[in-house]
Write a structure and sequence with these properties.
By secondary structure, this protein is of the alpha+beta class. The protein is built from one helix and two strands, in the order E-H-E. The protein has a two-stranded parallel sheet. The chain is elongated, with a radius of gyration of 10 Å.
Length: 40
């Protein structure tokens, strides 16, 4: 069981860079992750 298995995260700007790294790491720790990004 991961450290974040009972947690939910909403991450904005998760397509690239720091947001992507955070989303990936939280998913590896078994958090439920919503990934949001806006392309302009």
């Amino acid at each position: 069981m991961g450290r974040l298995s009972s947690k939910v995260a909403i991450i904005t700007g998760a397509a690239v860079g720091l947001g992507k790294a955070i989303a990936t790491r939280m998913a590896e720790q078994e958090a439920s992750v919503a990934i949001l990004d806006l392309q302009e």
